[in-house]
């Protein structure tokens, strides 16, 4: 007996907006958007060069899910700025579409019987993984970039494994539903004859307050608002418009060092006594032994400049800054790696933090733009930008461009 006061009854869902065409448009947008999110997310993990050293790998138990990994390139120098900027900005922009899609299919989640056949049962299980996985990915992603990651368990494995579960369920769903979705959208355009509306349509709809097209414009408007208040975090000229982004708004300081930072020297626990000209010595170790260099001695070595951005894993980035310093490959040559720069293990003065140590692959060390920077935009690095010296490498995630460098070890990691 149908009980319209219960969500299990189609009569409970009164909105006249629901229907396969409304759902299909949202579904097709998500088909493209989530695929781009998944690919850029996988690239984000690959950019860590996780196979190079345990210090770079926050998801060491990934097993076969790491099958796609490759040596992250240094060209183009803005690569990670692009992929991670797209990942985070698109993720946030898609939130209204995801929520509207979930709202449009919610009657299905309550429909009885739970399973009419084995195929139907499998489809419903994939729907639960799809909805649960999707919400999980978006929630963990947003919490991560909003810097108040309060989720139990480390973000990296949760978001990484969640991505695979979600995308597998998403792929199954897309294979099952895309043909019908394309037909429905064609019908909206009137290029195909009208069909039976199907189970998403309310059998007793409430009077309409807005048209389906109006509702789609509303969702699009929500996405446009999130896009315009997020994308500015990647463009200096627009940064003030990035109202929703933790690293949006005005830059904290002006002048040559006046560009975005993630962790300040104070936050990283850097003791100024350790960074003074008297106290600080860079320790460089390699095939022929160890050398210790003061900042003054480093400044006497051949210096080079590179125009490179800071591209953070949280999705924000700066425009290219002019860094000046000693090439990493020249420092490798100082300790016996003339002409064949090997991998590099970098250690910071930082006492805590997941990225106080990082590993760089030989191709990154060999790139002539990869520097141990002493200056930026014509001025000494400020303490918050890593004074006395920091690593800067093209196309690498910000976390691998170690600040307050104390030790460089060239050779097998
Ligand atoms: C609002 C939505 C999302 C936001 C804000 C977001 C944010 C992020 C951030 C900040 C990272 C880099 C974390 C780091 O390295 O520190 C990341 C990595 C990643 N994201 Fe997302 N994400 C979102 C949605 C998604 C979705 C829907 C998928 C899958 C379909 C996905 C897949 C991944 C993967 C595979 C990684 C690499 C994880 C790792 O480095 O271990 N993300 N995401």
TrEMBL record:
Keywords: Membrane, Transmembrane, Transmembrane helix. The chain crosses the membrane at residues 25-48, 86-106, 127-146, 158-176. Pfam families: Oxidored_molyb (PF00174). CDD domains: SO_family_Moco. Gene3D superfamilies: Oxidoreductase, molybdopterin-binding domain. This is Molybdopterin-dependent oxidoreductase. Residues 274-410 form the Oxidoreductase molybdopterin-binding domain. Coiled coil: none annotated.
């Amino acid at each position: 007996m149908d009980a319209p006061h219960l969500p299990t009854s189609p009569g409970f869902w009164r909105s006249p907006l629901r229907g396969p065409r409304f759902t299909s448009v949202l579904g097709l947008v998500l088909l493209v958007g989530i695929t781009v999110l998944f690919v850029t997310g996988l690239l984000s993990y690959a950019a860590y060069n996780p196979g190079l050293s345990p210090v770079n790998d926050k998801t060491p138990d990934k097993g076969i899910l790491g099958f796609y990994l490759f040596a992250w390139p240094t060209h183009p120098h803005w690569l990670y700025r692009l992929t991670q900027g797209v990942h985070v900005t698109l993720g946030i922009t898609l939130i209204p579409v995801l929520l509207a899609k979930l709202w449009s299919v919610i009657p299905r989640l309550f429909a009885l019987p739970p399973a009419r056949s084995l195929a139907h049962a499998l489809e419903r299980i994939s729907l639960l993984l799809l909805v649960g996985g999707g919400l999980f990915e978006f929630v963990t992603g947003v919490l991560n970039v909003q810097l108040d990651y309060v989720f139990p368990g480390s973000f990296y494995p949760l978001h990484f494994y969640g991505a695979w579960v979600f995308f597998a369920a998403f792929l199954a769903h897309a294979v099952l539903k895309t043909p019908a979705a394309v037909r429905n959208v064609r019908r909206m355009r009137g290029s195909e004859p009208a069909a039976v509306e199907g189970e998403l349509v309310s059998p007793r709809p409430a009077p309409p307050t807005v048209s389906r097209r109006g509702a789609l414009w509303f969702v699009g408007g929500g996405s446009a608002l999130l896009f315009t208040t997020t994308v500015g975090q990647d463009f200096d000229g627009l940064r003030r418009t990035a109202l929703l982004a933790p690293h949006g708004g005005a830059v904290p300081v002006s002048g040559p060092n006046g560009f975005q930072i993630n962790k300040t020297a104070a936050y990283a626990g850097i003791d100024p006594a350790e960074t003074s000209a008297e106290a600080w010595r860079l320790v460089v170790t390699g095939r022929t032994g160890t050398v210790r260099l003061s900042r003054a001695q480093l400044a006497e070595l051949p210096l080079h400049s590179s125009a490179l951005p800071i591209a953070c894993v949280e999705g924000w980035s700066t425009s290219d800054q002019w860094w000046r310093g000693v090439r990493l490959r020249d420092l490798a040559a100082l300790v016996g790696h003339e002409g064949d720069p090997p991998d590099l293990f970098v250690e910071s003065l930082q006492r805590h933090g997941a990225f106080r140590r990082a590993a760089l692959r030989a191709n990154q060390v060999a790139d002539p733009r990869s520097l141990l920077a002493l200056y930026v935009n014509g001025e000494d690095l400020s303490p918050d930008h890593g004074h006395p010296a920091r690593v800067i490498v093209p196309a690498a995630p910000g976390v691998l461009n170690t600040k307050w460098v104390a030790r460089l070890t060239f050779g097998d990691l």
